[in-house]
Design a protein that fits this description.
The complex is a heterodimer of chains A (199) and B (190). Chain A is an all-alpha fold and 199 residues long. Helices cover 65% and strands 0% of the residues of chain A. The longest helix of chain A is centred in the middle third of the chain and has 25 residues. Chain B has a six-stranded parallel beta sheet. The chains are: A mainly alpha (199), B alpha/beta (190).
Chain lengths: 199, 190
């Protein structure tokens, strides 16, 4: 059957439910009609590419609410991120990442963007640290958690090129996480511009 | 000498499936019918058909059977149509079917009540014959589609089973344009 046809029927049946979810998530400063329209486009694209075997889940109210919730969380996160950089949000059409769904499945209320130590993001980074070898974990800890300079780390560990090892370890962490969105947070908390310190 | 009907059959195309079926109808077959289209929230411009939309800024009707039936009763005159076409998966079409079914039930109830009142009246009392049912289509065409979700499919089957008794003739067609074109070609002059 034409999936667009199915999409239209599902959206009509659940319009009030989805609009209520959006209205409960945003309080001010956002045109909820625009969010709803973009959400519809998002859902339509998802339905079009959905595998045949898992298409049935789009009938479920719980699934629609989950998709809507993730969509709204993405918008809110981008708003906070862009506001820090002084850029206004102009669109809401990016998809939520797998890490995003895993981290925020319990609901938006658990997230605190101002205190990363309380967010699920930090927990996931710590588990990714276990994918590094002991030397790299030590170097990451000394550099980013003990905040030692490259020179101090070299003196402490007896290495002459700890900056190179640290950069490689960070690359490995990026591959382990594999979440584009978190690169913004990642680079903010784990910068690798050691050139001034080395020189 | 061909025996053709003098008056064209009027068709009510309901919802997305009805509209889609109408748009896929060959022009030469379209010319043999009077077309009316009933939609929920879209308002396409179609010159050869009379289009009615239930929901607009003044009447924000919710997409549910109860509210749609109320909107049909108050804002939409169920004129006499010969053929009703739609998908039993769509709430709009289901609401319209239930609207007609409710009319038929109400007619039977009133008829039964009047029958008891009329038992003492004479056989040829004119009032016996004055009660007539409101207009409803004789034929209903259920346009079925493949790839439905399980719940929607079950719902469509229930809709057909519940409402088909209210109409003289019921047809179940696949949405394939070649099948619907053939059906409506054969329906001309019937």
């Amino acid at each position: 059957m034409n999936r667009d046809h199915i999409f239209k029927e599902i959206i009509r049946r659940n319009e009030r439910l989805l609009r209520n979810k959006i209205n409960r998530t945003f309080f001010k400063g956002v045109n909820t009609d625009d969010v709803y329209q973009d959400l519809c486009i998002h859902i339509l694209n998802k339905i079009r590419i959905e595998a045949e075997g898992s298409l049935d889940r789009w009938e479920s109210e719980a699934w629609l609410l989950s998709v809507t919730g993730n969509f709204c969380i993405d918008i809110l996160r981008k708003q906070k991120s862009k506001k820090k950089k002084g850029v206004e949000i102009s669109n809401y059409t990016d998809d939520a990442s797998e890490m995003d769904r895993k981290a925020y499945q319990s609901g938006f209320g658990d997230y605190n963007g101002d205190d990363p130590s309380k967010s699920n993001v930090e927990i996931d980074l710590r588990s990714c640290m276990l994918s590094l070898n002991e030397r790299d974990r030590t170097l990451i800890t000394l550099r980013y958690f003990k905040e030692l300079s490259i020179k101090d780390i070299d003196d402490l560990t007896g290495l002459t090129n700890s900056a190179v090892y640290i950069k490689r370890a960070i690359e490995q962490l990026r591959r382990a996480i594999d979440v584009d969105y978190y690169l913004d947070h990642f680079d903010h908390y784990f910068p690798t511009d050691f050139d001034e310190e080395i020189n | 000498m061909e025996n053709t009907k003098s008056k064209k059959n009027s068709v009510l195309w309901v919802g997305d499936a009805g509209l889609n079926t109408y748009l896929n109808l060959h022009k030469s077959i379209q010319a043999h019918y009077d077309h009316n289209i009933l939609l929920y929230d879209e308002n396409p411009t179609i010159e050869e058909a009379h289009v009615t939309t239930l929901k607009d800024n003044e009447n924000p009707v919710a997409y549910a059977i109860t509210t749609l039936k109320q909107a049909l009763e108050t804002n939409y005159k169920a004129d006499e149509f010969d053929v009703l076409v739609g998908s039993p998966m769509e709430v709009l079409f289901t609401s319209l079917l239930e609207y007609y079914t409710d009319q038929l039930k109400q007619h039977h109830i009133e008829n039964h009540e009047n029958h008891e009142k009329l038992t003492t009246m004479k056989v040829f009392e004119p009032v016996r014959f004055k009660k007539t049912i409101k207009s409803r289509p004789e034929k209903v065409v259920f346009v079925n589609s493949d790839g439905l979700f399980k719940d929607l499919k079950a719902e469509a089957i229930n809709t057909i089973a519940k409402n088909k008794a209210s109409f003289t003739r019921c047809y179940e067609l696949d949405s394939d344009p070649s099948i619907t074109n053939e059906f409506f070609f054969n329906l001309i002059d019937k």
